[in-house]
Amino acid sequence: MAVSFAIQRSTRLSRVTAIVALLLLAGLIAAPWWAGRANVRLLGEVYSFVALATLWNLMAGYAGLVSVGQQAYVGFGGYMLFALAMFLGVHPLAAIAIAGVAGAIIALPIAPLLFRLQGAYFAIGTWVLAEVFRLSFAQVSSLGGGSGTSLPAAIVVGIASDRALREAAIYWTALTIAVASIAFVVLLLRSRMGLALTALRDSEVASESLGIDIWRTKLVVYVAVAGFTSMTGAFIFLQKLRISPDAAFSVNDWTAYVIFIAVIGGIGTIEGPIIGTVLFFLLRETLADLGTTYLIVLGAVAILVMLRAPKGLWGYFAERTGITLVPVRRRVVFPE
Amino acid sequence: MSEPLLSIRGLKAGYGDFQALFGIDLDVPAGETLALIGANGAGKSTLLRTVTGLVPCRPEMVCFDGRAIGGMRPDRIAALGIGLVPEGRRLFRSLSVEENLVIGGERALAGPWSLERVYSLFPILREKRRNPGMALSGGQQQMVAIGRALMANPRLILFDEISLGLAPVVIRDIYAALPPILATGVSVVLVEQDVTRALSVAQRFACIQEGRVSLAGKPGEHDRAAITAAYFGTDVKPGAH
Amino acid sequence: MEWVNAIVQGILIGGLYALFAAGLSLIFGVMRLVNIAHGDMIVAAAYVALVVVQATGLHPLASAFIVVPLMAALGYAMQRLLLNPTIGKDLLSPLLVTFGISVILQNGLLVAFTADSHRLAAGSIETANIQVAPGLALGVLPLVMFAASVLIIFGLELIFYRTSLGRAFRATSDDPEIAQLMKLDRNHVFGMAMALSAAIVAIAGIFLAIRTNFDPSAGPARLIFGFEAVIIGGLGNLWGTLAGGIVLGVAQAIGAQISPGWQILAGHLVFFLVLAVRPRGLFPRMD
Questions:
Q1: I want to staple B202 with a disulfide (CB 3.0 to 4.6 A). Which of A184, A195, B35, B157 is the partner?
Q2: What is the pTM for the complete model shown?
Q3: Digit-coded pLDDT (tens) for C165-186
Q4: Which chain A residue lies closest to C114 (C-alpha atoms)?
């Protein structure tokens, strides 16, 4: 006697969330009209961190690739932007996309090397990679060597002649990158590879015995994340207008903050990094930019979270209430 | 008649969501040997692991020497004088034969067992003392595992399937070492799938079936048929003595 | 001669790198934990030495008598309070907690001591050297440091293979469950391992403080050098780690001879080369 069942992807709550999210997105797209210049810039920064945290979380929370060296690609993307715009005259916004592709391309030969390192050794290996990039770019004198360089005003103006339009274009680029990153993660997790990733997260040994090609799955994730991270990095330094090896490959800015955001927000969830980023910036803006002290406090909170509530804010909340806003799981539903 | 050395009452234990023991009552009087028989997966190993503290349970469920020890930390339980010869031997891979024995004897209670005496019991080990523990044959590894437990001079030794995976000739040699061990007056719980062997050395036995005691008593009291029924769970008579 | 001199200096600093690596290796061997804060602990030890020297007027090398036990105690406490709860669960927890500790240490030192760099004066021993051949002079201090590193590695092997503590380390690493049945308190064993690592870190920190200028951000580089020495040398083999440190030191020295900016980069490239060609390292311990 066959039991009939259906596989459901979305819940009512997730459908409501989708509608709310679309409305929110519409509002954010319109931000250049209702938000002041400073806030538009700030939102751009928020988007870049949402992207970085979401991408880091995909690697660490799902693929088991804990990287403390993503700054390698942030800086690489930034330098690619400068190089493409300054030496090849590429339009900056196009350069951002190309920088993403370039990041994915160099990640391809690097991943197999790094994958030879297990667990936490892999993490340090990613850090070494970032150092190699930093030291290498410091040798390139045409990009300013050790002290870095600024983006010529002509290139910036080349984006659009009207300043308001220019800033809006940059802002929309950031929004696009953030949305694209989240969309990529969601679509990946909803796909067959996503199922493999979730299985991998639960048990590598079991997954492998089921025939899941772990190596290839990790490679795809690593390369894709490298590409998106490079794009994000390119945007970040377009907005900053100045790049230097220390700023481009800073562990604190592009890894420490990102990791703490993901941990506190909730590793292994889609909502976590977003909530973590919002919280991070709310705190930063209200407490005034304290730099060093902020890092210490964040670090301490992150440690506490790992020790007491390892699933983070959202993870804890989701576990208690069973709520998932973004539908990535499949549910088996038996009709009455 | 004094209290039993080990007393188990209503023991319920398991692994996370999976319950393996559903209320076990057992006694081991001092100086006696209790054979625990039962099929694979019946819960015998879980029982031993609970006594040694590797699996948690409520304190009053396991009493040793009058003291509630259920759920205590394993290193504290070991210090009280309970030793385990684990299923699968579980020798320390990075340690030599002698080091495996010596580490067993650290902070030992007072008693008859020493490195010399273990080597007298198992002469082959003296020959192989410097070899890595894992480089020995299965039977020799079993001897090391037993020796390691003896070195602590425990008051209660738990033997978990010491004949597992060994050839009959080797099993005979291992079991030949039991009488000298039992003669020192140590209390023993012997988990065995080989019923005949188990009953030949024990004063009492209990048969575990799906996490419950299906039959218990002295070896002569029950016939083959009753034991087989209790072992496999066919026609179980609850509370039979 | 210049090249020979450079290579010899590279060999000698290899000893220091091996010292950086030894503590890292020890922890990984006993509890499969990679302490990302390791480099920052070395720098913190350097600052502790600075404070002790300034307060007592002791010679930096003598300050070890205070710094070593202090760091060992702090390491023990850190392990039991912050790290033991994370071990065994998953990969993420210990890594992120040690990363958090790293960030806190770095920034805490920054707040306490500012970004100014310091260096500990060791007196006349700093410039003393032995003329080995025309044009080739070996600094006494680097020689002493190298010898100390060798002695410490020797001592570690002794502890591991000849003492009760070492047996406890190995047994707990092999089979944490059964080790408890040997009356070994896992929490204490791990604490002792970190304490030992911290003691080595203390000596490495004092050497670092004498040898170069250090500042709060110097930690990650030390971690990376130690890590590279371990990977180049091969996991699970302390003498291999010494060899790895020497290879790294020599690579850096050769790089520096080519161009100053290439010094550290050369080391990284050799690391990646070894990773590509001999992923298990040059002298891995056969398991």
A1: B35
A2: 0.88
A3: 999 999 999 999 999 999 999 9
A4: A292
